[in-house]
Known about the structure:
- The chain is of the alpha/beta class.
- The chain has helices at 16-25, 40-54, 84-91, 95-115, 146-162, 193-198, 202-206, 233-243, 263-273, 285-293, 300-311, 321-332; strands spanning 3-7, 27-32, 60-63, 65-67, 70-71, 120-121, 166-172, 188-189, 212-215, 219-220, 248-253, 277-279.
- The chain has one domain (3-35, 74-332): Alpha-Beta Barrel (TIM Barrel).
- The chain has an eight-stranded parallel β-barrel with strand order 1-2-3-6-7-9-11-12, surrounded by five helices. A two-stranded antiparallel ribbon has the order 4-5.
- Strand 6, helix 5 (146-162) and strand 7 form a beta-alpha-beta unit.
Amino acid sequence: MAKSFICGVEGLTLNDAEREFLTKEKPYGVILFARNIDNPEQVRALNAEIKSLLDHPYASILIDQEGGRVARMRPPHWRAYPTGKYFADMVKDDPERARQAVLVNALLIAEELRAVGITTDCAPLADVLAPECHDVIGDRAFGDTPEQVAFLASAQADGLLAGGILPVLKHIPGHGRATSDSHHELPTVTAPMKELEACDFLPFRALRAIPLGMTAHIVYTALDPVNCATTSSTVLNFIRSDIGFDGLLMSDDLSMKALGGSYEERTEKTLAAGCDLALHCNGRMDEMTAVAAHSIRLDGDALRRAQNALLRLPVMAAPAEETLLAEWHALTAA
């Protein structure tokens, strides 16, 4: 049975230590980065081997393929996709056209991911862009109002699902007010609860039915003045009860510098707080081993959520690529 963590791997192919690790530890899945991607044949072979070693029903291959600067698969083998801001700008002239463009764009992304054996895309990003927001979000956001963000992010989730790819809602409960990059330090958001409820939390509440989600390594002083969302049972209980998200919830990357302590401590705190999965991305074996040693078997509510996610995938195939491309060109023509 799968264990409650996701890991990375070092390169374009698995080494012997990674094969042994995946066979023994059985993580829920593996997340790919640019270091793992060269061409379609290589990615397909890598993913096929990973799935064969995991050998459980939830064996997942994840990737961050939002579009813009957050895209691990790039030309010449794969298409370049627009940023969230591109679609946010389209909304000003024609909201329904913008939403349909997001949907078709997501279907095209899904087609490329599915063709190489990827199962899960860490998108949509539902963070509401605040004036003070650090550039780590920037043009990735679908807008600066909760209504617009929910409107477009829901279309991206719908398109991914229709294309046979599981979406991951991020970064719950909102990264749009952070003034620093959680890859490098721990951001603190001091906005009062009234403001957070009126803005930041709204898209996540609207999109709470998305089957997977990812936490934010951010301290929200209105909820917990000490612990970041990922390691705060108070914040994660709020996500489950007040926001109403009952999907499979993974942490953001445990190797980000927003978190302190050993990898054993990071994993234990993350899972004890209420995350279903601990995400570790950099592929370093010593860190992965520590995460695996302090992970647990996927069981109870976490197992139920993993099963429910698979049930969301469609039985029928998405439209043909040629049809999608024709619609995309019609939607985005000047």
